[in-house]
């Protein structure tokens, strides 16, 4: 990929615009915020639709219940807060009031992964997919680029049930073209290959594409799948691709416990004929650092993903040789 | 201001509330239940459904209906017998209480039972949801009212006070909270376990209009409920002083009856006790 042609989008700006466009078309759409909207996606919404923006300050348990009350009354609320407060502080309200009732409440978990590394482990959450994913009825969308973020807003509103949308702070490199249409529950094959399947989500899709191009230079043909819906997972594409390549690597800016890797492992363990390597963050609270420092520290740069994949492929070759002895 | 009950209306409500208590005891043939709070809140719920709420059991999703959320979901025995009596579903459903796949479990489920506005059980959830309903009603310029019944023990939950603060901030005069202040919770006296008092001052300082009533006096209950909102642009709260397990002589005011695992052989004795109480009180209020 030529570096001059790379386009980057700010996810929060994309979401802010999409929410305004959506709200213009559908007067059921309302915005619920917890003292964090202006720096995130709520500013333009508030400017255009002040009557449909409800501020609750620093009280996420109440705000989630209020969102449920709005939704059960026919509104389509989008509620935004930092991931720890959007997903954990009000977890029981999400479970009981939003998911059990299967209401159209759309939760935007802002600053997922290492978005806000210097704020430390109270704000850096690498367990949200596992926690939220354990609840029935909820859909988890983890977009990789601008077009996906925009589509996620429209598709979340359309879906008659709760959605948890992971929103990253980093500028997202454009992967999909104009006119991209997101189908919830369907992954996108963004690079074709036949020797290895790389399944990635969010920020790690761009890094995985770069790693796959490095592998290609070494003569290894890797397929890259952008898994933007983490629940329900695109089981068909995982099985189709892994049946072909027999080797799968998952890459996520999330704990390897109960994230994308675990979800893929669940499919492969029961139905798939492929070996799996999970690349992500080991079961621990993350150290503190700037975004680029953390990505490097945890081995999630394209170069380090490339190295880990090479180790995985070589180890497998060694195993095959030892079996022959 | 406010309406008054006629003597006949008062007697009818009395009759109805004791009929409901008897039905609750009949349900308890089928298992344990939170009888204490059901009996303490029953007179309030009886007035709400018979005299206050604008609702239509034949159209449970009618958009302009008043909403009632039982935030203290464990008191649902009182809600079940009332909804059945109002015609939301067949009374026979009551006799499936706590059996496999029942529509009337120990916490209410809106998916299976018409008339249940919102599922509750975990405490401290009802008032936030009511706030959202009230905001939606304001946005749509609809005139219906949202009533929420809370327990006094429940008010130890922080989320209750988040919602109390927010309802006042958003000027939700279409919300009325009713606190069933029976003074007891699972393990004993609320004042000793976590003192949630003083309610009146707390709610008032959070910007609510407050009225304290005797939660078993039909005139007081009706007088208060028929006057909400007490003030424009402010949410209303009615602090109802009640007696745990009111109407069951041998259990009144005892925390051990918060949740009762009644042996079937004792049901008859309990029904007789309630019948006795009904006569006694009927003579007094008549």
Describe this structure as you would to a colleague.
The complex is a heterodimer of chains A (325) and B (286). With 325 residues, chain A is of the alpha/beta class. Chain A is 42% helix and 20% strand. A 7-stranded mixed sheet of chain A has the order 3-2-4-5-7-6-12, with helices on both faces. A 5-stranded mixed sheet of chain A has the order 9-11-10-13-14, sandwiched between helices. In chain A, strands 1-8 form a two-stranded antiparallel ribbon. In chain A, helix 8 links the parallel strand 10 (196-200) and strand 11 (222-226). In chain A, helix 8 (204-217) packs across helix 12 and helix 9 (235-245) crosses helix 10 (260-271). The N and C termini of chain A lie far apart (42 Å). Chain B is an alpha/beta fold and 286 residues long. Chain B contains 9 helices and 7 strands. In chain B, the strands form 2 sheets. A 5-stranded parallel sheet of chain B has the order 1-2-3-7-6, sandwiched between helices. Chain B has a two-stranded antiparallel sheet with strand order 4-5. The longest helix of chain B has 22 residues, at 264-285. The two termini of chain B are 24 Å apart.
Number of domains of chain B: 1
Give the CATH topology of the largest domain in chain A: Rossmann fold
Named at the architecture level, the CATH assignment of the largest domain in chain A is 3-Layer(aba) Sandwich
Number of domains of chain A: 2
Q: At the first level of CATH, what is the class of the largest domain in chain A?
A: Alpha Beta
Characterize the overall form of chain A: globular
Q: What is the first-to-last residue Cα distance of chain A?
A: 42 Å
Helix content of chain A: 40-55%
Oligomer class: heterodimer
Assign the structural class of chain A, choosing from mainly alpha, mainly beta, alpha/beta, alpha+beta, or little secondary structure.
alpha/beta
Question: Radius of gyration of chain A over alpha carbons?
Answer: 20 Å
Relative helix content of chain B:
40-55%
């Amino acid at each position: 990929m030529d570096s001059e042609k790379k386009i980057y989008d700010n996810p929060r700006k994309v979401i802010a615009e999409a929410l305004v466009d959506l709200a213009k078309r559908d007067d059921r759409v309302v915005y619920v915020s917890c003292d964090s909207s202006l720096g995130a996606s709520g500013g333009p919404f508030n400017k255009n639709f002040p009557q449909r923006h409800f501020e609750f300050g620093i009280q996420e348990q109440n705000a989630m219940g209020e969102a449920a009350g709005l939704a059960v009354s026919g509104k389509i609320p989008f509620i935004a807060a930092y991931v720890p407060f959007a997903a954990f502080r009000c977890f029981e309200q999400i479970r009981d009031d939003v998911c059990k009732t299967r209401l159209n409440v759309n939760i935007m978990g802002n600053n997922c992964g290492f978005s806000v590394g210097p704020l430390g482990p109270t704000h850096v959450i690498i367990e949200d997919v596992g926690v939220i994913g354990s609840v029935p009825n909820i859909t988890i969308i983890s977009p990789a680029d601008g077009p996906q973020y925009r589509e996620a807003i429209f598709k979340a509103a359309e879906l008659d049930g709760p959605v948890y949308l992971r929103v990253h702070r980093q500028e997202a490199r454009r992967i999909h073209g104009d006119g991209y249409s997101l189908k919830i529950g369907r992954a996108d094959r963004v690079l074709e290959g036949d020797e290895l399947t790389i399944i990635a989500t969010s920020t790690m899709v761009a890094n995985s594409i770069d790693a796959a191009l490095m592998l290609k230079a070494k003569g290894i043909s890797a397929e890259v799948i952008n898994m933007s819906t983490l629940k329900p997972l695109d089981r068909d594409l995982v099985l189709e691709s892994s049946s072909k390549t027999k080797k799968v690597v998952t890459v996520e800016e999330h704990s390897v416990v109960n994230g994308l890797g675990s979800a893929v492992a669940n499919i492969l363990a029961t139905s798939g004929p492929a070996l799996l390597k999970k690349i992500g963050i080991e079961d621990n609270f993350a150290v503190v650092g700037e975004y680029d420092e953390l990505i490097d520290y945890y081995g999630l740069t394209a170069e380090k993903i490339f190295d880990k994949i090479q180790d995985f492929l070589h180890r497998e070759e060694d195993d095959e040789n030892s079996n022959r002895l | 201001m406010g309406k008054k009950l006629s003597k006949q209306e008062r007697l009818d409500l009395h009759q109805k509330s004791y009929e409901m208590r008897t039905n609750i005891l009949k349900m308890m043939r089928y298992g344990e239940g939170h009888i204490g709070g059901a009996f303490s809140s029953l007179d309030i719920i009886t007035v709400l459904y018979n005299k206050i709420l604008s609702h239509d059991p034949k159209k449970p999703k009618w958009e302009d209906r008043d909403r009632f959320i039982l935030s203290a979901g464990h008191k649902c025995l009182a809600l079940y017998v009332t909804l059945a009596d109002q015609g939301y579903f067949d009374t026979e459903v009551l006799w499936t209480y706590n059996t496999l796949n029942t529509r009337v479990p120990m916490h209410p489920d809106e998916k299976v039972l018409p008339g249940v506005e919102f599922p509750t059980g975990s405490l401290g959830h009802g008032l936030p949801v009511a706030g959202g309903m009230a905001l939606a009603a304001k946005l749509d310029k609809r005139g219906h009212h949202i009533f929420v019944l809370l327990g006094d023990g429940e008010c130890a939950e922080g989320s209750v006070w988040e919602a109390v603060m927010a309802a006042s901030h958003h000027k939700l005069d279409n919300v009325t909270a009713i606190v069933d202040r029976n003074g007891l919770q699972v393990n004993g006296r609320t004042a000793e376990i976590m003192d949630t008092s003083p309610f009146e001052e707390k709610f008032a300082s959070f910007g609510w209009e407050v009225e304290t009533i005797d939660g078993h006096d039909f005139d007081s209950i009706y007088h208060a409920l028929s006057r909400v909102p007490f003030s424009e642009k402010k949410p209303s709260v009615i602090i109802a002083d009640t007696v745990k397990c009111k109407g069951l002589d041998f259990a009144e005011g005892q925390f051990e009856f918060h949740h009762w695992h009644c042996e079937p052989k004792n049901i008859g004795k309990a029904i007789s006790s309630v019948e006795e109480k009904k006569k006694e009180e009927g003579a007094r209020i008549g």
